[in-house]
Amino acid sequence: MVVAAVGIAINGVTAWLFASARKGDINLRAAFLHMAYDALVSGGVVAAGGVILLTGWTRLDPLVSLAIAVVILVGTWGLLRGSVGMALDAVPVEIKPDEVSRFLLQQPV
User: Fold this and answer.
1) Which residues have C-beta within 8 Å of that of residue 30, sequence separation ≥ 6?
2) Measured over all CA atoms, what is the biggest interatomic distance in the chain, rounded to whole angstroms?
3) What is the mean predicted confidence (pLDDT) over 68-90?
């Protein structure tokens, strides 16, 4: 539990360092999510370990593991969609077709 608590601090600070740049770069977003979810996993280890020590309820360990896996899957789904879109040369979601059309129509011929 002590090692996991140190992991929370280290991964939390590292995620915080990546937080400001995660919007513009998919690689930095992936690094941010990796560090944030590492901190989350460490938090789950500390919480589950504490409850197991106090109550002896060892079934909590796989339940916490499954909950963390679901949170990671849901949280990284957008990253997967974005990276597959980049691999397939899709138009980024932040591009507004109406704005592009207006801009192009305003250009001299």
Assistant:
1) 79, 83
2) 76
3) 90
Q: Crossing angle, helix 60-87 and helix 26-55, to 10 degrees?
A: 170
Cα–Cα distances (Å) from 92 to 1, 25, 65, 87, in that order, read 42, 12, 33, 11
pTM greater than the 0.90 cutoff? no
pLDDT higher than threshold 90 for residue 85: no
DSSP codes of every residue in 40-54:
HHHHHHHHHHHHHHH
Q: How many CB atoms lie within 10 A of CB 15?
A: 20
Residue 83, both tokens: 């990276």
How distant, in Å, are the alpha carbons of 7, 30, 43, 76 from that of 4?
5, 22, 7, 22
What's the pLDDT band for 14 if we cut at 50, 70, 90? very high
User: Are the C-beta atoms of residues 8 and 42 closer than 8 Å to each other?
Assistant: yes
- In the block, which residue shows the tokens 């679901």? 70
